[in-house]
Design brief:
It is built from seven helices and two strands, in the order H-H-H-E-E-H-H-H-H. By secondary structure, it is mainly alpha-helical. It has a two-stranded antiparallel sheet. Strand 1 and strand 2 form a beta hairpin. Helix 2 crosses helix 3.
């Protein structure tokens, strides 16, 4: 499940993606526009900056801006940076695999196999979608129908 941290991060990145190229926004502006607690947003923006998705500049004319174009930033990457692996269970994760203590046979565990399929479907959608796609979808009348697997 997407946490508030992941949701707020996506909202902040969408806000920045909608700015004119070369523009930046202060953290307070992003927080106010998206109803995000400022202190929480500051920590999120720092993580996204450390992951190479944002750049920041202090002082007058400063603020946050995307470090790459919206087409280059994948939604799956944003979520993994902020919330960790996409898999609903650690035994279904590719990047953070940990077997369940109660599992007798990983190869035949129906729960793990099902959750691996869920992980794959989520990954296909989120890694196939860019920040640019999310901006476009938010302006489309049938946004929910535009992207399907």
């Amino acid at each position: 499940m997407l946490t508030n941290k992941g949701k707020y991060g996506l909202k902040a990145m969408l806000f920045l993606a909608r700015l004119e190229p070369g523009s930046s926004a202060m953290g307070q502006e992003i927080a106010t526009a998206n109803n995000i607690p400022k202190k929480f947003l500051d920590a999120i923006l720092l993580e996204l900056r450390n992951a190479g998705m944002l750049r920041s500049k202090k002082g007058p004319g400063g603020g946050y801006a995307l470090a790459k174009t919206p087409r280059e930033i994948r939604i799956g990457h944003i979520i993994r940076v902020l919330d960790g692996p996409l898999a609903p269970l650690s035994c279904a994760s590719k990047s953070a695999f940990v077997p369940c203590e109660d599992c007798e046979d990983l190869a035949t565990c129906s729960v793990r196999i099902t959750m691996s399929k869920v992980r794959d479907a989520m990954s296909d959608i989120l890694d196939g979608m860019s920040l640019h796609d999310m901006v476009i979808f938010s302006h489309a009348p049938d946004a929910d129908l535009m992207y399907s697997i």
